[in-house]
Design a protein that fits this description.
The protein is α/β, with parallel strands linked by helices and 461 residues long. The protein contains 16 helices and 13 strands. The protein has 2 domains: 125 residues, no CATH class; 300 residues, TIM Barrel (Alpha-Beta Barrel). The structure holds iron/sulfur cluster (SF4) (2 copies).
């Protein structure tokens, strides 16, 4: 197909577009690279996209809108990476021990269990953190605690040492905890509260669902303990992210989760962020029946919003390939992709943030899902450099199949963990997910817009 005059060599490459015939005599056309959507009436579609009539008055318009070259994409990627806020996070895992046994825990992979971090290892990690967090410090640099469960009584000296380093370096502290044994840390958290950016915890739906999905070895009603500890943290001015990790069995509990948040006054509390996450199976370990796809979950969130109205402090944390288009049509529900850049599937495959999880054996990991799996570590602390674990390259530019794929700019190669095991599974799941998203979310949105405006065509930009 010949380049269109006046369009910087843009070519209308139909094979790369996502095209679907819809009701009302029109086609839905989506370009995943420019994140544009158009409803094109049948006659125009035939003229431009089937007959490729360069003389059509619409041909130049669509070629410009949808014509991306490899070089153009390279520029877009560079510009986006340039604009992105950069973060350095050193995330310490004192041990993989836990006082709960959640049904979807990433760290129950049967890998050999390491003991609790000793003083020598903690000193080495904090020494490294001092160097890396003060080299190009930004307000987004932070020191974090992860696990296993970090707030175990035996970890008190580790938590204090980390908080003391935060105080000394003036970098914010973030912890991810189930809050089941946080009581023992109340005093410490109170003393250092000025350095604590937030505590991230989980409430899976209501009491029964939470206690079933996240049973504790030391507490018969972890739900009540978590709720009580969230209130304590809020009471001393610490921000709390309360996440609900949804699977197929708990999907109908989102409303109960919101009821609890409302009753507790969390929906109006500026210190609270309510997150909806998704249980996933990135290493294809066989819990597929319990996994709900991102498009199914988004569909149920949209229905819930129509039914009861969602609070302003709720945000989604599970959209990946569907995120740019969902945001563009106003259905992203406050999802913030701080670490992820466009044309990368997730933050862990975006080559800009320096984020490292370090465990008691000095193993370094990049992505949350891989923590505690020695075969998926990035390197050891012994050979650690500031940029260790930062991904290189971009799958869209390197893989011809992804470049010419109709959802390439959204999927961008998919999860690198799943991809290592089976690219075929990535493609099957991402394409099925996107098709469902178009059927259940995008087409109803288009229908509303065309009816509302009384027009035959609509576009998102
Ligand atoms: S991984 Fe598969 S679905 Fe994803 S962009 Fe590449 S070819 Fe398309
Ligand atoms: S590579 Fe990305 S998508 Fe895959 S598990 Fe890690 S963070 Fe999630």
């Amino acid at each position: 197909m010949a380049p269109v005059p006046g369009t910087s060599g843009a070519v209308l490459d139909i094979d790369r577009l996502y095209i679907r015939r819809i009701d009302g005599g029109a086609y839905l056309v989506i370009d995943s690279i420019s994140n544009s959507l158009d409803v094109v009436p049948d006659d125009t579609f035939r003229d431009v996209f089937v007959d490729c009539n360069c003389d059509s008055k619409y041909y130049g318009y669509y070629a410009k809108r949808y014509g991306t070259t490899h070089e153009g994409l390279r520029r877009l990627i560079e510009e986006d990476l340039e604009e992105k806020v950069k973060t350095t996070s050193v995330i310490i895992c004192p041990s993989y021990r836990c006082n709960c046994c959640c049904c979807y825990c990433y760290q129950q992979s049967g890998a050999p269990v390491l003991g609790t971090m000793d003083e020598g290892m903690l000193e080495r990690i904090l020494g490294f953190a001092r160097e890396i967090l003060t080299d190009g410090v930004t307000e987004h640099n932070n020191l974090q605690l992860f696990g296993g469960e970090p707030f175990l009584p035996e970890n008190e000296w580790i938590v204090k040492a980390i908080l003391e380093t935060c105080r000394d370096l003036k970098v914010p502290f973030i912890a991810t905890s189930n809050l089941v044994q946080m009581d023992a840390f109340r005093r410490t958290l109170y003393v250092y509260r000025g350095y604590i950016a937030r505590i991230c915890t989980t409430i899976d739906g209501d009491r029964d669902t939470h206690n079933r999905n996240r049973p504790s070895k030391v507490d018969t009603d972890p739900f009540s303990t978590v709720v009580e500890n969230i209130d304590y943290l809020l009471g001393i001015g610490i921000r709390v992210n309360v996440a609900f990790n949804v699977d197929r069995m708990s999907m109908d509990r989102i409303s109960s989760f919101l009821d609890i948040a409302e009753t507790k006054g969390w929906t109006d509390n500026p210190l609270v962020s309510l997150e909806i996450g998704r249980v996933d199976d990135r290493l294809l370990e066989g819990c597929a029946d319990g996994i709900v796809s991102e498009s199914e979950l988004l569909e149920s969130i949209i229905a819930l919003d129509a039914e009861r109205g969602l609070p302003g402090n709720i945000r989604l944390a599970f959209l990946k390939a569907t995120e740019p288009l969902a945001q563009a049509i106003g259905l992203g529900f406050n999802q913030k992709e701080w670490g992820r850049s466009r044309y990368y599937y997730c933050w862990a495959s975006t080559p800009s943030d320096r984020i490292m999880y370090i465990d008691s054996g000095g193993n370094v990991f990049r992505c949350t899902y891989t923590v505690g799996r020695p075969e998926l570590r990035v390197c050891s602390l012994d050979v650690m450099r500031p940029d260790s674990g930062m991904p290189t390259g971009n799958v869209l530019l390197e893989d011809d199949e992804c470049w010419s794929c109709s959802i390439g700019g959204y999927c961008s190669g998919g999860c690198m963990n799943t991809r290592r095991i089976s690219k075929k599974r990535v493609c099957e799941e991402e394409r099925a997910n996107f098709d469902n998203f178009v059927d259940r979310v995008v087409i109803p949105w288009v229908r509303n817009k065309t009816e509302e405006r009384g027009v035959r065509s609509v576009s998102n930009v």
